[in-house]
């Protein structure tokens, strides 16, 4: 019997600035039904405290976390393509959570769990240190106006939250279609303790095959938008 998972340095100060805005919008009937029927099985809450992924999933496997999965299409695709791995998704937009729950039910996925809350609360209160093999942050809100840059989720404090939850050797994978935000991400990541560029110092990465191309990304490509991927590995 191994020891219960630990939860390490806590970043408990309540932050006044949030990196997201709760969007409006009603759930569709299908999303609502999925929430009511599937959330009790696949949903996780901060009130549960620190989880043991081995207990949650009933096995020991590579563990992936996606922060801000939107409507859930890419996360469901990754979970379906890699049944030997486990996935946790975090999203504050309830229709998106309902959408992913609907896909879980329709596709019979068993290797996926969901939080519907602020990612920082999950990182601070729920995930054991050194428990994640990969963290994914795809197309977060770019907060493109200069006066809003302080709202961008990729900041040094946030990266250290991620670092402590990754295993040594684990990967933090970021992607954005805003060049200015890509440059901001690169600057923050290059200056982050315990993280090293998995490609080369100061370099963006080619899109890894395991990141699905989303409808959002395809639309951006049609409009001539670029996409920048960054891969960083925890070193200590």
TrEMBL record:
PROSITE patterns to which the protein is assigned, alphabetical: SAM_MT_TRMB
Pfam families noted in UniProt: Methyltransf_4
Entry EC no(s): 2.1.1.33
Gene Ontology cellular-component terms listed: tRNA methyltransferase complex
Uppermost EC category: transferase
Record GO terms (molecular function): tRNA (guanine(46)-N7)-methyltransferase activity
Function: Catalyzes the formation of N(7)-methylguanine at position 46 (m7G46) in tRNA.
Family: Belongs to the class I-like SAM-binding methyltransferase superfamily. TrmB family.
Protein name, entry field: tRNA (guanine-N(7)-)-methyltransferase
Classification lineage: Bacteria, Pseudomonadati, Pseudomonadota, Gammaproteobacteria, Alteromonadales
Gene: trmB
């Amino acid at each position: 019997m191994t020891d219960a998972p630990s939860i390490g340095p806590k970043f408990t100060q309540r932050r006044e600035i949030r990196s997201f805005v709760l969007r409006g919008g009603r759930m569709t009937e299908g999303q609502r039904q999925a929430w009511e029927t599937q959330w009790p099985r696949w949903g996780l809450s901060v009130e549960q405290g620190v989880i043991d992924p081995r207990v949650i999933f009933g096995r020991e496997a590579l563990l992936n976390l996606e922060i801000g999965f939107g409507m859930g299409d890419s996360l469901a695709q990754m979970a379906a393509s890699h049944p030997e791995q486990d996935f946790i998704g975090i999203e504050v937009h309830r229709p998106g959570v309902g959408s992913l729950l609907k896909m879980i039910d329709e596709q019979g996925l068993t290797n996926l769990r969901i939080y519907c809350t602020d990612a920082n609360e999950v990182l601070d209160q729920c995930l054991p240190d050194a428990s994640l093999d990969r963290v994914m942050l795809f197309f977060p809100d770019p907060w493109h106006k200069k006066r809003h840059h302080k709202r961008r989720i990729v900041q040094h404090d946030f990266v250290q939250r991620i670092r402590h939850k990754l295993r040594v050797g684990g990967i933090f994978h970021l992607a954005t279609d805003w060049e200015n935000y890509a440059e901001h991400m690169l600057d923050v990541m290059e200056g982050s303790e315990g993280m090293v560029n998995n490609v080369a110092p100061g370099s963006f990465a080619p899109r890894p095959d395991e990141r699905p191309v989303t409808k959002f990304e395809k639309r951006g490509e049609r409009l001539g938008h670029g996409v920048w991927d960054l891969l960083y590995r925890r070193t200590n």
